[in-house]
Write a structure and sequence with these properties.
5 helices; alpha+beta; 3-stranded antiparallel beta sheet; 3-stranded mixed beta sheet
């Protein structure tokens, strides 16, 4: 056996290497068909370049859209910040009008103390309606147990009438805005005698 026989043990005798496809497989023709010609390569490259260009345009459009969304959002936040109090202020105008009318009445005529009190009570009712409408709730804990979450103890007084840690006096009422503490009630708390 020769060296070529050792490297190709299944080679048939009398058949030249590479000649087995001369009749049926025709490897030269298959290679020619498998290898694309220059025209089809150029066409494929052109198609890929068009796809890349299209993808770049889409990316640029998406980036521009994101910038527009960001700018629009910033504008909307700024508008919301500017006009967040618009409804509240509009409602407070009624309180302002009532106070002005009360001052006009007290300046022009000799208003009685009873009339001034009545006007003040009316104004306070209007103001409280505005507060309620906008989620502001009063915290008036007189006689209730001291709650450090809602109350600020200004001092403690010994008391025989009240249990220790009970609110004796409210110096300043507190307020909750939509359930969140806006200002704690300032109170004087009972201590053991």
């Amino acid at each position: 056996m020769s060296h070529s026989d050792e490297s190709n043990p299944v080679q048939e005798e009398g058949v030249e290497p590479g000649a087995e496809g001369a009749e049926g497989g025709q490897p030269e023709v298959a290679e020619a068909e498998a290898a694309p010609d220059a025209a089809s390569l150029a066409e494929h490259i052109e198609k890929l370049q068009a796809e890349v260009h299209h993808a770049q345009e889409n990316a640029m459009r998406a980036q521009a859209e994101m910038q527009n969304v960001r700018k629009r959002s910033l504008r909307e936040v700024e508008q919301a910040r500017k006009f967040a109090l618009e409804r509240f202020m509009s409602d407070l105008l009624e309180v302002n009008d009532t106070l002005e009318k009360g001052l006009e009445v007290s300046e022009g005529e000799q208003a009685s103390a009873e009339q001034l009190q009545e006007g003040t009570e009316l104004t306070l009712r209007i103001l409280r309606k505005v507060f309620e409408k906008h989620g502001l709730q009063e915290v008036d804990p007189a006689g209730a147990a001291f709650d450090p979450e809602l109350h600020e103890a200004m001092s403690m007084l010994p008391s025989e009438d009240q249990e220790p840690n009970t609110v004796l006096f409210v110096i300043q009422k507190g307020f909750l805005l939509n359930g969140r503490l806006l200002r704690p009630a300032r109170v004087i708390v009972a201590s053991a005698p």
